[in-house]
Amino acid sequence: MLPASTSTGPETGLVESLAALSRTLVGITTRTLATLDVDVTLSQYRAIVVLASRGPLRTVDLAAALHVHPSTVTRTCDRLVRRGLVARHPGATDRRVSWLGLTNSGKELVGEVMRRRTDQIRELVGSRRTEPVRDLAELVEALVVAAGEPTERQWWQQWERCTEPAVTPGERTG
């Protein structure tokens, strides 16, 4: 059962399917980063993706794009600078301003993750059954299921039970 705060309406099926797809894509990205054996968290990876898509940014602008405090971006980018994925450059006219941009290694990492993620999504699309779907929500849910992930409804059902103690076979219940 979905939490009580979840709305119902004609778009509910699509919203639920997209929420499940979001979890699926995060999982794909996480697994891709793990296969590359890089020491980068998802939040650090998100920062370098934004830098890849928007070009060099001031610390304050990257913080705004990520919806975090500038001090969070400073700490995140300090780690990425040490790993050789991000470079920090002083402003040309105001040296108090710090610009952040990707190094070649950072650019290569983002490109490789994106290529691998796209390949995995292509496999999901190719593996789903070829029966016609009624609507976009059904298509998205089919992709989630093809990835081996729970649907939104299944996820929330598990969420309801996730703090219950495990019962091993042969144990008496109740």
Automatic annotation (TrEMBL):
Keywords for the protein's UniProt record, in alphabetical order: DNA-binding, Transcription, Transcription regulation
Every HTH marR-type domain range: 11-145
Pfam families given in the database record: MarR
Keyword Cell membrane (UniProt): no
Matches recorded under InterPro entries: HTH_MarR-typ, MarR/SlyA-like, Tscrpt_reg_MarR-type_CS, WH-like_DNA-bd_sf, WH_DNA-bd_sf
Name of protein: MarR family winged helix-turn-helix transcriptional regulator
Organism phylogeny: Bacteria, Bacillati, Actinomycetota, Actinomycetes, Micromonosporales
